[in-house]
Amino acid sequence: MKFSEIPYERPDMKQVMDNIDELTRKFSNASSADEQYAVPMLQSILLQCTLLPQ
């Protein structure tokens, strides 16, 4: 498959920002470092910002 044949789908930025807000809220409301560590914030953000389908 050529690069020009790879379909591009523009990210839904409203959905991305809503998800970031939710993850930030969970992280901020965690009662311990272990709970904060359990919030997959970075992984979720990176998955949403990639060109590859999830």
Number of domains: 1
Apparent shape:
elongated
Instruction: Please identify the oligomeric state.
Output: single chain
CA-atom Rg in angstroms:
15 Å
User: Strand content of the residues, in percent?
Assistant: under 5%
Look at the helices and sheets and give the structural class: mainly alpha
Q: What do the pLDDT scores average to?
A: 79
Helix percent reads 55-70%
Largest sheet geometry: none
The first-to-last residue Cα distance is: 19 Å
Helical stretch count? 3
Along the chain, the helix and strand elements come as HHH
How many E-type strands? 0
Unreliable spans: none
Task: Summarize the model shown.
With 54 residues, this protein is an all-alpha fold.
Question: How would you describe the overall organization of this protein?
Answer:
- The protein has 54 residues and is mostly helical.
- The chain has one domain.
- It contains three helices and no strands.
- It has helices at 13-29, 33-38, 41-49.
- The longest helix has 17 residues, at 13-29.
- The chain is elongated and about 50 Å long.
- The mean pLDDT is 79.
Topology at a glance:
Elements lengths: L12 H17 L3 H6 L2 H9 L5
Structural features:
59% helix; 0% strand; elongated; 54 residues; 3 helices; mainly alpha
